[in-house]
Amino acid sequence: MKKYKLLKNDRIIHQGHTLYRIQALKDIYNYYTNFLVMKGTKGGYIESEKNLDQMNSCWVGGNAKVYGNAKVTTYAVVKDNAEVFDNAVVGGDARVWGNAKIYGNAKIHGEAKVYGNAEVFENAKVFDEARIYDNAKVHGYALVFNEAQVRGNAVVKDNARVLNSAIVEDEALLVENAQVQGNARIKEREVLDWGKIVYHSTDLETLRKEIIENLFEVRTKFFNDEAKEFLKKFIKEIHEEVLRRYF
Fold first, then answer.
1. Residues near 93 by Cβ (< 8 Å), separated by ≥ 6?
2. Which residues are within 8 A (CB) of 197 and not within 5 positions of it... i.e. 6 or more apart?
């Protein structure tokens, strides 16, 4: 027996897609998260049954929208005003709510949570018990997993990794092959790139010094003190220009 139906008389046009509100045909209970949808409850909007699995207890609620080739599967829940579209997949026990958006080829699974105004897109993956929220953005081929958090206005992209209990917040930017792990915390307007790895918060001051001394593999030992100071100033200006362009 199907667990929901599309209400053909309750539809909207959104981003060029015709979406239909869903209604539960039976009680839907998720034992793992204590999530319950009563029979007759109206949910959010989907384009077709391919967007929401008829099996298990996954659900789209509130005014959430799932369309394109996107899928919500297993025990996942998308609610409030959240959107999942393109080829994105939300599965496992994952939760997406608020005004969050999951799109491109992004995948959210495990017990991951994405909420607020956060966005996960392109080929990024968020899984385990990771959390992405506030205005954070995760994209490219970035991975955020274990109990890691990305929040504030932080951006994690390219092949960057955030794992363990690490936190990336404020207006921090992780690019290239940068990794933040352990209990490290990257914050304010920190830029982490070029394969830098931070394991613990105590590594940050050393990292700052390394960025100033070695960004773009500048070797200051060949210059006098005046030239070194000039290079340091120049590198700081590059750092500020990156922040100005990408935030």
1. 30, 32, 33, 74, 75, 76, 110, 111
2. 178, 179, 180, 181
Residue 194, C-beta contacts closer than 8 angstroms, at least 6 positions apart: 176, 177, 178, 215
Task: Please state, in angstroms and rounded to a whole number, the distance separating the CA atoms of residues 178 and 231.
Answer: 23
pLDDT in tens, 110-147: 999 999 999 999 999 999 999 999 999 999 999 999 99
Helix (H) or strand (E) holding 96: strand 95-96
Based on its alpha-carbon atoms, the radius of gyration of the chain, rounded to whole angstroms, reads 22
> What 3-state DSSP class applies to 41?
coil
- Going by their DSSP bridges, the two strands 95-96 and 77-78 should be labelled as parallel
The amino acid sitting at 51 is N
In tens, the pLDDT along 46-95 reads 999 999 999 999 999 999 999 999 999 999 999 999 999 999 999 999 99
Q: Phi first, then psi: what are they for 211, rounded to 5°?
A: -60, -45
61's tokens: 């609620």
pTM of this structure: 0.81
Residue 194 DSSP code:
T
| CB 165, CB 146: distance < 8 Å | yes
233-243: b or e for each residue (b if 16 or more CB lie within 10 Å)?
Answer: eebeeebeeee
User: What is the length of the chain?
Assistant: 247
Q: Which helix (H) or strand (E) is 132 found in, with range?
A: strand 131-132
Token digits of residue 132: 């992405």
Give the count of alpha carbons within 13 A of 125, CB side only: 13
